[in-house]
Amino acid sequence: MSGKYWLLKTEPNEFSIDALKAKGNQGEPWDGIRNYQARNFLREMTLDDTVLIYHSACATPAIVGEAKIIRTAYDDYNALDPNSKYFDAKSTPEKNRWSLVDVCFVEKWAKPLTLSQIKTIAELSAMKLVKQSRLSVSPVTAKEYDAIASLR
DNA sequence: GCCAACGTTGGC
DNA sequence: GCCAACGTTGGC
Q1: A114 pairs with which residues across the strands?
Q2: For residues A114 and A61, is the Cβ–Cβ distance under 8 A?
Q3: What pLDDT sits at residue A17?
Q4: What percent of chain A clears pLDDT 90, i.e. is strictly above it?
Q5: What is the DSSP string of A67-133?
Q6: pLDDT mean over A70-77
Q7: Does A1 have pLDDT greater than 80?
Q8: Shortest-distance nucleotide from A115 CA to C1'
Q9: Strand C: which positions are within 7 A of a protein CB?
Q10: How crowded is residue A60: how many other Cβ atoms within 10 Å of its Cβ?
Q11: How many CA atoms lie within 13 Å of A147's alpha carbon, on the beta-carbon side?
Q12: Distance between CA atoms of A145 and A124, rounded to whole angstroms?
């Protein structure tokens, strides 16, 4: 089991880890990423990479479980759909600015690792999640992942 | 609901 | 290419 590690944020009101679980093996297109830095990380993802699922903009922001990449980056069709809330007038079928990946549920943790806990752990205090709070897709180092895994 | 952080847009 | 204005994210 090798591969890279990532963290994806989602608002549980919009799409929770339970909603991802309900999708089963077919997984879910992780759409709506409209930030270049986040998009670039999406494009670096490879098959079977581990994804930490983080609930943001809720009562207790926390890492709540794990997922994996089941399809690597492809054009975000929502950007071309005028009826989508993710429509982007500057994207065309030839030059689509945005990408998405498909993600599949792996595991929901019995005990979420909260942001406030994360901030108190030395090995995790440099996480992009902490340093760049508005970034919705971020890399996680192997060291960080090990520290997180040992805490749950 | 407030507000800090910060990415994006557009005038010049 | 600079930078002010604006919009969004997300913790609290």
Answers
A1: A62
A2: yes
A3: 97
A4: 85
A5: EEEEEEEEE-GGGG-TTSTT--TT--SSS---EEEEEEEEEEEEEEEEHHHHHH-GGGTT-HHHHST
A6: 95
A7: no
A8: C11
A9: 8-12
A10: 11
A11: 16
A12: 9
Q: Are strands A5-10 and A50-55 parallel, antiparallel or unpaired?
A: parallel
pTM for this entry = 0.93
Check pLDDT > 60 for residue A43: yes
| Angstrom distance (rounded) from CA A15 to CA A128 | 22
Instruction: Using the predicted structure, report yes or no on whether residue A85 has a pLDDT greater than 90.
Output: no
A61 touches strand C (CB under 7 A): yes
Q: Which residue is nearest to nucleotide C10 (CA to C1')?
A: A57
Q: What is the pLDDT of residue A2?
A: 67
